[in-house]
Please model this.
Amino acid sequence: MAKIIIKNENELNGMRDAGRVAANIRMQLAKEIAPGVTTQELDLFARDLIDKAGARSAFINYQGPRGVPPYPGYTCISVNEEVVHGIPGDRKIRLGDIVSIDIGVIYRGFIGDNAMTVPVGVTDPKVLELIRVAEQSLMNAIEKAVEGNRLTDISHAVEQTVIPHGFGVVRDFVGHGVGRNMHEPPQIYNFGPPGRGPILKEGMTLAIEPMVNLGTHDVETLSDGWTVVTRDRKPSVHVEHTVAVHAGKAEILTLPEG
Ligand code: MF3
Ligand code: CO
Model:
C-alpha cells in the first residue's frame, strides 16, 4: 500500500487556505440553488467564484478511467438520483429536489475538496432524514480522524451512523487522502469493520465523503462515463470535508470564512 503523505506545519497552512477557499465557494454557490436554475448556470457561477478567489478548479479536465473523456465541469452537481460526479448541463432545478454540490479547488499549490447536499423546498420527511443522517455520519467519521486511531475507524463510523435508519451506504466510491494532489493515498471506504488499515498520524490530510442512498447501496455510471446514479433511481446524498489529523481532535479544513 502506498504511503500516506504527512504534511508539515507550512503545508498544513497551505491546506488550511485551500480548504477555506473551497468552503467559501461551496457556501456561496449553495445560495444560488433555486427552482428554474440549471446546473450549468450553477457551474459557471462557481467558475467565476473560483476565478475571483485566485484559485483553479481541481476537477475540470480531470483524467478519469481509460476511454472516458476528461471531466468537463468546474464542479460536480448531482441532483436527486445522481450520487456523485454529475456533469453540469441543462437540467433545471425543481422544487422538491436535493442538489449535491462538490467543489474542489487548487489554491497556491494545495487542494481543498468539499461537498454538501442542499434541499430545495423538500417536504418529504424521509429525504430530510436522509440528509440529516448523511451529515451526522460525516461528523461521526471526522471524530475518528485522530492520531492513534486506525483508518477504518472512520469507515465504520459512517456505516454505523447510517445502518439504524435503513439507508444504503455507497460501496463503489471512496474518500481519499488529499494534498498537493486531489487523490492521494489512502482510499477511505464508508463501510466495514473498525480497527484495520494504517494508524492515523498528525499531519495526515483526508477528504472524508459519505454517499448515502434512500434505497439500496447499488449505483451505476451513465454512458457519459462520469455521472453516478442509484440503480433504483431513489435520491442520494453526498457530503464531504477535508480534514487534518491531530492528537485528540480532527481539524475541519473546509469550514467557510475564519
Ligand atoms: N470530490 C470528488 C472526488 O474526490 C470529485 C472528483 S470529480 C472529478 O473524487 F471529476 F474531478 F473526478
Ligand atoms: Co473528494
Remarks:
- The two ends are 36 Å apart (CA to CA).
